[in-house]
Amino acid sequence: MTDNPDGAALLEEARRTLLETLLPLLPPERRYDGLMVANAMAIAAREAGQGDALFRESVNLLAALFPAAAPSENLRAQLLDLEARLAREIRAGLCNAPGPRRDAIRDYLRRSATTRLRLSNPKALSKPSR
Amino acid sequence: MTIDLAADGAAQERLCRFVAAAAGATRATIVSIAPLRGGAIQENWAVDIEMEGGAGAGRHALVLRTDAPSRVAASHGRAQEYALLKLARAAGVAVPEPLWLCSDPAVVGRAFYLMRRMPGVAAGHRIVKDISLGGPRDALAERLGQELARIHAVTPQTVTRLAPDQSFEFLTPASAIPGLDRVKLYRRYLDDLGDPHPALEWGLHWLELNSRPAGEITLVHQDFRTGNYLIDERGLTAILDWEFCAWGDPMSDIGWFCAKCWRFGATEREAGGIAARAPFYRGYEAASGRRIDPAAVHYWEVAAHVRWAVIALQQAARHLSGAQRSLELALTGRILPELELEVLNLVDAAEGRAA
Lengths: 130, 355
Fold this sequence. Notes:
The complex is a heterodimer.
Chain A: H1 7-22, H2 31-48, H3 53-65, H4 75-91, H5 100-120, H6 123-126
Helix pairs in contact in A: 1-2, 3-4, 3-5
Chain B: H1 9-23, E1 27-36, E2 42-52, E3 58-67, H2 78-90, E4 98-102, E5 112-116, H3 124-129, H4 137-152, H5 159-162, H6 178-193, H7 198-209, E6 218-220, E7 229-231, E8 236-239, E9 246-248, H8 250-258, H9 277-288, H10 294-320, H11 327-332, H12 336-350
Antiparallel strand pairs in B: 1-2, 2-3, 3-5, 4-5, 6-9, 7-8
Helix pairs in contact in B: 4-9, 6-7, 6-10, 7-10, 7-12, 8-10, 10-12
């Protein structure tokens, strides 16, 4: 429990102040720095609103691919461990055989990239891919 | 050691003494000096110098280029880049004239060289948006194709004739299958970085399975893209950023130039965000006498996104390790998902799946 506004809301408001009030006051050669700060704040605000939902979804999808994987309290560590296993399998050519497992891996990779892109640069998702 | 050249009078004096000696002038004076927004790998300064005596008496608009405090693994140092600029000039490529190299770190804190400052704009976002720059865009794309063909005319066989007084042993050699060399290298970089990246492994495995021998091995620029050339109101003025040159498959540079990640948002203009592929390919094919195989370019576009992803991870690591704290490097780490998605799309397209 935190006081209101929460961290994500504070970041959002701080970013609005930066863009609307401070950015026009910056000399032209510092404008890019201002925009980068605004971008970093936007990413952090989106991520703060996300909690650990992203880790949880990925871990669930990967755990289905590696049923023997030991569950862990630490979602982030578990995700790293599962992704390391997946990376090793792909590199070793163990995911080449056409079939449901290969399809599931492809779907996972696409889903993971899309979910993370929604945090880092959601505008890129609304553009046509070609 | 980092020296702020704009504020350090003693460093400026040492720089002036170096320039006067190198140019055969009796005296050199700095008229103005200011940082240029450059790449994340080196620092560039715009320097205006007034020289007295000697053949170069008068005012000179120069760029001083020095290493940044930390480096990306594959990039050459300033001495090598200086040699490459001389080679490119001998090969007829439009490059800023390299003037003097200083390997003595006592002058400005790190090795540097000076070159003539060329007019124009390099910023990718501006070039893609402001079509009043660079003349008719199809002609610009065609010209860039011609310049790239000149770079690829440099081969392990012609290099000594073009630059007899320089050694290019520092250029990474290529095997008969340069794609496999790249796969090995990027896997090693990923292993060094530590964290798993299964989507990049997906792309690397496809690159491994689909690698083909190169038609021939030539000099490759390895960073020939929008953002790394200068244009003024009329057209191209110079090709920049030679620090990644190596021996390799010439098609790799075509793939890098056309890769979606270097179109700066203008994704429908597939040649660097400035034009369709046709004029770029036309200029290249006419000047090189080589045919461009679209399947080979597609292969190298997959490789381009994997490569940029690995470099982005290395740049983010420079920030995360504390070697060079920078918001720009930090944010570079967050472009990974976009690159991964394009790797997946390109591999799917090659396998006949709709993206």
